[in-house]
Design a protein that fits this description.
Belongs to the cytochrome P450 family. It comes from Microcaecilia unicolor. InterPro entries: CYP11_CYP27_families, Cyt_P450, Cyt_P450_CS, Cyt_P450_E_grp-I, Cyt_P450_sf. This is 1,25-dihydroxyvitamin D(3) 24-hydroxylase, mitochondrial-like. The chain is of the alpha+beta class. It folds into two domains: about 1-35 and about 305-370, Uridine Diphospho-n-acetylenolpyruvylglucosamine Reductase, domain 2, CATH 3.30.43.20; about 45-290 and about 375-395, Cytochrome p450, CATH 1.10.630. Helix content is about 60%, strand content about 5%. The chain has 19 helices and six strands. The chain has helices at about 1-10, 25-35, 45-55, 65-80, 85-90, 90-110, 120-135, 150-170, 170-180, 180-205, 215-225, 230-240, 245-260, 260-275, 285, 290-300, 335-340, 355, 380-400, and strands at about 10-15, 20-25, 310, 315-320, 320-325, 330-335. Strand 4 and strand 5 (about 320-325) form a beta hairpin. The radius of gyration is 21 Å and the shape is globular. The structure holds protoporphyrin IX containing FE. Protoporphyrin IX containing FE binds near residues 245 and 371.
Length: about 400
């Protein structure tokens, strides 16, 4: 998409199969869309997901729901997931999982310092963390003998995502009518995802009165605003949302640091100057690590985890001098925006310092890895804390063990 934008400019039309869209790759256009946002912003409909829910008589979650019903869900979840004070308290749980992760990596590391499938190990780390936070549940995925069900969940998410793309750009109605292999595999993957998520929810709700609370499910279910069916839909999506994204973002952060020795050294120095020997990083101590936060911001700018988001125009809207009719799908391409030399000098270089030095001159719409406005990622604060702690552990792991 970055290359297309270089060829066709900051805004252009694109038809891909039955899918018609307008592509934007410029922060000023993103800002103009944000300024016109309504109370219920809409993204591109994920029709295959909706069709699965209708087919199995399941509810929609935050990623799939629209309008007022979305807003009610969002408020219930946001209160617990986006409140900085509430999220800060999750550092203990995140550190507990991180300790297991570091031990596991040390155990499975070959002599030359290689891990066979680091990305899958990171998937296990992110899954273990999100389940602990959502349900107070330790799944044991970082132990030698781990549960098949949990591994299956991660694999089912990958399988479901594999078929999502092709189903999005062709007629999903037709796939369903003809019961194509793509539709069958997508359905099977969702069946597996829902089975596991429902079991976790059920087991947690059954035990709520007996064990310690503090998990997101207990807090939300106590508010009593959402039905069990809605909880299943929302929590399946939160469980999915917390796996690939954080794992991918950490993988890129490790990669970017590995290519930039000076940044690594500077970061190590900052961590050493902030933490006393033997201390674990906490939400509080991270506040004293501006360079660490800049490394993460820079990594998410240079190598965004989610390549795009979208908005469906709710009314005829002027964007960059073009009138986009109501219903137009606008795709917001993060790479094209964040690699734009007009907004970042040396845009393709990893330079964490830019977030410290040029802070006031940087356009806030020129790097939005978690999206924008009311529909911004609801797991943002959680992910940021998790990634900041993880980076800290990565640099310290040899001294902590
Ligand atoms: C939405 C990115 C982690 C759950 C989004 C969006 C982006 C995004 C770009 C679309 C926002 C928009 O349209 O403006 C990321 C990145 C992550 C991350 C880069 C980590 C590095 C998480 C986590 C969770 C999560 C940990 C679950 C706890 C969601 C949900 C939505 C969403 C439910 C839909 C929100 C709504 O429509 O109301 N995310 N995300 N994400 N994300 Fe994340």
């Amino acid at each position: 998409m970055h290359q297309y934008h270089q060829k066709f400019g900051k805004i252009f039309k694109m038809n891909l199969g039955t899918f018609k869209s307008v592509q934007i790759g410029d922060p000023t256009l993103l800002e103009s869309i944000f300024r016109k946002e309504s109370n219920y912003p809409r993204r591109l409909e994920i029709k295959p997901w909706k069709m699965y829910r209708d087919y199995r008589n399941e509810a929609y979650g935050l990623l799939t729901q629209e309008g007022q019903a979305w807003q009610t869900m969002r408020k219930a979840v946001q209160r617990n997931l986006m409140d900085p004070k509430e999220v800060a308290k999750l550092d203990l749980k995140m550190n507990e999982v991180m300790q297991d992760f570091v031990t596991r990596i040390n155990n499975i590391c070959h002599e030359k310092g290689c891990v066979d499938d680091l990305y899958f190990e990171l998937n296990k780390w992110s899954y273990e963390t999100i389940c602990f936070i959502l349900y107070n549940r330790r799944c044991g995925l970082l132990q030698e003998a781990c549960g098949e069900d949990d591994l299956k969940f991660i694999k089912s998410v990958k399988e479901m995502m594999k078929y999502l793309g092709p189903l999005m750009v062709t007629s999903v109605n037709l796939h369903r009518k003809l019961n194509t292999p793509q539709w069958q595999k997508h359905t099977q993957a969702w069946d597996d995802i829902f089975t596991t998520a429902k079991r976790f929810i059920h087991e947690r709700l059954e035990n709520i009165s007996k064990s310690q609370k503090g998990d997101i499910l207990s807090k939300i279910s106590e508010q009593g605003q959402l039905s069990k069916k809605e909880l299943s839909a929302i929590f399946s999506e939160l469980q999915i949302g917390g796996i690939e994204t954080t794992a991918n973002a950490l993988m890129w952060a490790i990669f970017n640091l590995s290519q930039n020795y000076n940044a690594q050294e500077k970061l190590y120095e900052e961590i050493q100057n902030t933490l006393l020997p033997g201390d674990l990083p906490t939400s509080q101590s991270l506040k004293q690590m501006p360079y660490l936060r800049s490394c993460l911001k820079e990594s998410m700018r240079l190598t965004p985890t989610v390549p795009f988001t979208s908005r469906t125009m709710e009314e005829d809207t002027n964007v960059g001098g073009f009138l986009l009719p109501q219903g137009t799908i606008v795709m917001i391409n993060f790479h094209a925006i964040t690699w734009n030399e007009d907004f970042y000098t040396d845009a393709k270089k990893f330079k964490p310092e830019r977030w410290l030095q040029d802070k006031h001159t940087l356009n806030p719409f020129a790097s939005t890895p978690f999206g924008i406005g009311r529909r911004m990622c609801v797991g943002r604060r959680l992910a940021e804390l998790q990634l900041q702690l993880a980076l800290c552990w990565q640099l310290l792991k040899s001294t902590l063990l």
